[in-house]
Specification:
alpha/beta; Rossmann fold; Dihydrodipicolinate Reductase, domain 2; 6-stranded parallel beta sheet
């Protein structure tokens, strides 16, 4: 039986729930995991919020604020799933206290913060990881395997969108995700962060970018209550939206490929449309998060007249992570990606190695985010510098 | 330059228009055709109808009734696209007059009529063909090629539906297709005829059947005017629907495969849903007429973890018939199947050989249709006898 | 905080794992559940198997055989997920011991066994339920809601298949599911049972049926080891396959609709293809388990020229069960249906009412299964008698 | 019976064949057309080429070069489907000779040439039209109708790609389309031209653009023979590719919407992937040329929980242009768009009015093409100036 590790989580909203699934299910799906997490403590802005989450999500104890939990002597891993503006402070404090750190994306508010975080983990030698969970969709992992096997050859094109529509109603209120001081950016940091990381993972480094940022609805009702997640209620006074509703950019990759990226919260009918296509000299690959159990592949080397897009239902036991779940054809959901992440994290801690995507990947992503912002301001191509 | 052949067509409605496309376009798409049709004469029930069709469809002359055209000395091929109740008389008269015969499906009202027709063509030695045009969809022809190459191995399952919805409105009137004395049967002869022929073509002979026939709307308004096609107008008195709205049956094939067939005009949302799937020991094939440029194929011999349904866009120059049309990716439509049929017919006449699907195929289809009708009456499995 | 109920589960294979997810996750997803299950004891054929499952699946204690657990004084609910041949004995014993019973489908080996089970639960007044979990797919529940709102009008057609392909390899061994004495039937009881229940749920009672049963591979290697699930290994001697590989049937519903059903384990490329389409006077509905987050709907009352199949991504908070999970567009998997079932079961026990699908639904399904078997033997239509 | 008009066509390759279908079929499909074209004369670079095309495509006479046909006294309409470098000279000469002009896209080599052409048609008063045939896909026309009815509200996003893959093989030779002096540009003028025109048609004017142009394969074999179309053969010496293989750009529309455009000939598996999606405040629309009979629509105003993407099969008689063809569900092909164009052209000439898309639309498109080229050179956003 594997050793155990005590986890402390900061943040109890949507992401807190999703991360909890990861800790809870990892040993159920993957009995070979090298370290079994114990859901020791959950912290939130208020003790009421923390206590309520504790009961529903299944943590042992609850606490208020983040300052105490990062010092708790019986905790070895801190999971950061607060608003973006707190990532750096919590992660640095946790690392300085000798805790391993698992942090939500985007890594921080800017490149400078990321570098501070990296300094802290390097100096203390703790294990670190960023929650770019879409790398751990079995279909995406299969894409990666196939690419490494040469399935697409030399990459020419990356074409990715992340389309959502949850704030299209002009009466939807000013939640924290729409305020620059709390979120850093809007669709850009929230959604482009994911597809930039996937591009890094599947195609390679981005050399330079040219983008535009757009806010369609410039004023919204202030929030009625003190907190508010995705289903928040509006109040009566109006406030300024200070982040982008949509950010689009072109990219040149270091290896010669070219790409398009688009993140928006104004694409009606696209609830969670994280989609990409890669075209290479030998083949092409397509993915759509709303059908995350499927991967499409076109092999240019197939016999003439027999070529076509093959839809692989990525649920066979031989597919990445699927041995842990159900027989072929019994699909998994979005939440399963968190279990896969935690599986990698646990094994990483056991092996004393920060598994990808780690803080270096988080920094690289942030550098692209920042270059796009600069390009949107200057109207010019901007070189990405890490 | 190829020799010419004069064509006379009987029938000027929907099918007359479609057949006309075949004659008009064959040499345009296929300059290698061995015989070039001349659209000499079109006949219809009234001279007005014939004349109007002549102008729009591009025939040289018009005539009334079918008796004269089948004797016209300058005509070598008679195309029969009247109501089903006239097929036999016209085809037999044409054959007896030494004309080649191209006949719409279903071949006739019953097996006995089919046999009379076969007797006539056998005795006179004319070329004969039945318009099961769906054999000549490039994707279906590709399926046939692949099956012959072993792509599916031993067939286990045939699963076909032909779903339409054009008479669901209870106020839709009693057109000829809803009267047994004119049509023979309803969805059964109209739609099952097609998928039975495809099953014969792609899987093999049917040994026995068990079916049911259903009429959902038993009375309908009589037609206001004398004639009426698919867009007919209703009058005020009500009349009896004497054909099936839907016919479903199970089948056992001679080679051990089993199948389901379903034809209906009451499947809302399915405008023209001719769809089939075949599963064999090595692979599976799927087709849908509403996306007739595509063929889906699953190869069980693909590497583990890389298996999936491949959607082949059947528009490459190497695909059946496609060299005659456009560059890859420029799709063709339903009407093109008629051009392909006529291409085969012209070459067959030039070679003095009745190309499949010919009257023997028509008879075989009729025998299955009739066995299903008998099964529906007796509530028992019925062996198909040709 | 809700009261708790102690659960004892018999069976520790594939279904044991799936049921465990239901008990484990119900209060996490649905904090309003009226009774919270405690995973008290798991029993299996051997203590080793039970102990191993206990650890991985998270039960408190393990035991051997089913006779003791059904008498355990601290257990109030018995979950039966053994082979079909044991369902009746366990369920009757559990009911006689005053335990509520949750039983896998098909309910039993035949109608007579079902009636014994019903007698037991009626006499003891315990709550009972059958695991037709596909009723609890949110998209299926939405279909039910829409049908009740009149979305399809009078039903005309039911068209369902349940296609799998996991035993196509002739070397796949003789697992218990291929032996009549253990499984009762093959694809029929395993797969048709599901789509018969869905037809009952969505269309109505079946009046009479006509079917065929087919075994494509008649001999297979005996199992190397004593037990074997879906991934079993083959031995060297050959044994007789005594169940159907595929069962197809036509049905007449009491309300005048007609239907086709097909269950097979020989449909290559269909890993878990539970699919149905219903056509009614006002609209049509389509579902595919391999894309279980989607429901397709066609409304014949839509404006002319604006009609089409609408693909509803059934992940909005207003959709059935989805409030318990994630924001819109974050899909769920197959396992979630078990959580929904357990949610209903817990509330049913709290309310002292057996929630549908219960033993009466199980019996009704079994009656259809049996009528089809009789029809396949006699070659005639058979009336369904409960 | 409508009056006739004599047509002279310059160019006898792929586009010549497609245009010929338009003239040949227009009165067959649309008997109400106001002017019936007579296919009088076809001209090509050599008389052999012209004569061969004459026979196959069905023109009355053949001639060499373009200078004579534009002066032919019995011709009233000149159809220009040569290489792009000749468009201007032919169109101007034809207009100066008093002929109406129908010209392939892109309109010319640059904005200056377009302006010369406009000067000529304005001074002579002839009717002019550009062959942006994708406006006349019934599904696209339906999209236009729906947008005008308010189906999408205020447009936010335009997202279009035109993906092909026919020159991915590095051994594919240097055909005229890969030489700047003959084609002007590569994928940009060939493919972006189409989606720019669609954006103008469906969203509105483009204010400014930022783009990149990429040539993946910089050297290719020179053509073996003097001419070569899509299926050309390679010779032995190598030559420089002087056009783009792919051009991508971002756009800001005058009305506040933002857009992405991508044209490439290096997207393996995409034979002819002209696809777009528009998101507006009330709804969204999607189109894919490879499934040109379908239009997808999402209505944000649909009832909560009943929202979804509706796939409209655009083959009903009430759909644009479809009354001319077949019953619902009998799909049309790519070639039909040419018939629709010629229908509009004929009616335009009869009404003495240049139907859209005419030379002004061609110029507007060219201005965007040119602005993108400038942006690709300077690395900056460029304002579009007409």
């Amino acid at each position: 039986m594997a050793d155990k590790i005590n986890v402390g989580m900061v943040g109890a909203a949507f992401m807190g729930k999703a991360h909890s699934v990861g800790y809870r299910d990892v040993a159920f799906a993957f009995p070979d995991v090298k370290l079994v997490p114990v859901m020791k403590e959950i912290a939130a802005a208020t003790i009421e919020e923390a206590e309520s989450a504790r009961q529903v999500l299944g943590w042992e104890r609850a606490s208020e604020g983040w300052e105490k939990i990062v010092q708790a002597p019986d905790i070895q891993l801190i999971d950061v799933c607060t608003g973006n503006n707190l990532h750096k402070d919590i992660a640095v404090a946790a690392a300085r206290a000798g805790k391993h750190v698992f942090c939500e994306k985007p890594m921080a508010m800017n490149v400078a913060e990321c570098k501070e975080m990296i300094k802290a983990v390097e100096e203390t030698g703790v294990v670190h990881m960023i929650n770019f969970n879409y790398r751990r969709v079995p279909a995406v992992e299969l894409a990666k395997q196939m690419i490494e096997e040469g399935a697409i050859g030399t990459p020419y094109h990356w074409r990715a969108v992340y389309l959502q529509d949850w704030i299209m109603d002009p009466k939807f209120p000013l939640v924290w995700r729409l305020k620059k001081e709390l979120a850093g950016s809007g669709a850009h940091g929230d959604l482009n962060a994911h597809i930039i990381d996937l591009a890094h993972y599947l195609v390679g480094d981005i050399d330079s970018v040219c983008g535009l940022m757009k806010t369609f609805i410039k004023q919204r009702p202030e929030l009625a209550a003190t907190t508010g997640g995705l289903g928040a209620k509006a109040g009566e006074t109006m406030g300024e939206v200070t982040v982008d509703d949509a950010t689009l950019f072109l990219a040149k990759f270091a290896n010669g490929a070219v790409g398009t990226f688009e993140a928006t919260r104004f694409a009606g009918g696209n609830r969670n449309g994280n989609r990409f296509e890669i075209n290479g000299s030998e083949g092409s690959i397509r993915f759509n998060l709303e059908r995350l159990n499927e991967l499409e592949y076109f092999d240019r080397r197939d016999k003439e007249g027999r070529q076509g897009w093959k839809t692989i239902l990525v649920t066979d036991p031989v597919h990445p992570y699927m041995k842990g779940w159900w027989p072929a054809g019994h699909i998994i959901g979005w939440q399963h990606t968190f279990v896969h992440q935690i599986y990698n994290l646990m094994n990483g801690i056991a092996d004393k190695k920060s598994p990808a995507p780690n803080f270096y990947d988080g920094l690289k992503c942030q550098a692209v985010l920042e270059a796009v912002e600069k390009s949107a301001e200057t109207g010019q191509w901007v070189k990405v510098e890490v």
